Amino acid sequence: MLRFVKQHMETIVGVELYPMVSFLIFFTFFVGLIAYVIMMKKGYIKEVESLPLTEND
Question: Which residues lie closer than 8 Å to 15 by C-beta, 6 or more apart?
Fold first, then answer.
């Protein structure tokens, strides 16, 4: 089964580009997410942190 998939993938022109593009999208997303979390204001984090504990009548 794997041999069939490998042979089929080798016939696609430019197939070696897809893993690199996928990795760049993945890496960019998570670096951006980490930068967003680091740059969040501490007051906002405290507010969101206590949301499940607040009682609304």
Answer: 9
pTM given for the model? 0.60
Give counts: helices (H), strands (E), the chain: 3, 0
Q: Which pLDDT score is estimated for 41?
A: 92
Q: How far is CA 7 from CA 2, 12, 16, 20, in A?
A: 9, 9, 13, 20
**Residue 36 Cα to chain centre, angstroms:** 13
Using one digit for the tens of pLDDT, what is the confidence trace for 10-38?
A: 788 888 888 899 999 999 999 999 999 99
* Under 8 Å between Cβ of 15 and 9: yes
